[in-house]
Design brief:
Rossmann fold, binds adenosine-5'-triphosphate, 2 domains, alpha/beta
Length: about 300
Amino acid sequence: MSYLELKDVSVSFGPASNRTEVLSNLNLKVEENEFVAVIGFSGAGKSTLMSLLAGLQEPTNGEVLFKGKPIKGPGPDLGIMFQNYSLLPWLSVNDNVKLAVNKVFPELSKKEVDEKIHNYVEMVRLDHAGDKKPHELSGGMRQRASLARTLSLDPEVLLLDEPLSALDALTRSELQDQILNIWERDKRTVVMITNDVDEAVLMADRIVPLTMGPKATLADEFIVNMERPRDRHTLNDHPEFMRLKAEITRFMMNLNKEAKSLAKPVNTSMPDIAPKDFTVPSGRPQFSRNFKISASPSTPS
Ligand SMILES: Nc1ncnc2c1ncn2[C@@H]1O[C@H](COP(=O)(O)OP(=O)(O)OP(=O)(O)O)[C@@H](O)[C@H]1O
């Protein structure tokens, strides 16, 4: 039995007359304490995949299992951090974290809650902005606040949907290290979505590409056979890093080419209708000519 598993999962959206299968026949097994990165293009269905793992969405077909049981809904064991931050706009950074901590750990004293908030808000370097509301923060700061909130819940599984995409390179590196520290220290299981090949190879044990949609599916994985801790400063001299990076990049570029070659030209047929009469009503200024159109093609009268 795997810790977290997708079994023949498909997801479709839309009414029966115009249904799109966004994700098709997904199979994935994640073991406890593993760090798996899912890499894919925009619009392929990565967030939909994360919503499935977090129990926020049910598959149209197939099963999503956590410790062998179907996931029935969201819960504190499955901590998701969304790409779009999802902070409550009327609460400060500290209070966003506090609300979540109080909900998941009602037994903690006020002092313990405050310590937790301080610990995680400081970890993401937002201690100077703890009293600020989301609209007073930059995109990157919101992303960090959202990460602090997810980490503060100590979930068994961390589901990170492009958690670092809005950050500058320096902050991104720092937070990559923080996530890796938490993962190594607290022995969490992580599934992270990213579109950055370097980030995936630096952080993950396995990298699973999501093919282009519609009917996106998970392709064969790439195993990252590199010792840990991985030193970001020497990665570019590491032959395995360079090999994997080149191989994954080539694979993703081929996916893109293939999707483009399969794309059908869009022919939008226009309805065969035309106004019956363009005559300007009396009393209105007249143009030099009236146009009367009774059927297409239009014919000047
Ligand atoms: N609730 C929904 N109803 C209808 N279509 C949806 C719904 N959710 C997602 N989709 C469609 O499913 C596809 C995949 O969306 P999703 O957000 O999972 O992609 P993504 O890979 O996360 O994209 P991005 O990287 O741009 O955020 C898109 O075509 C989207 O329009």
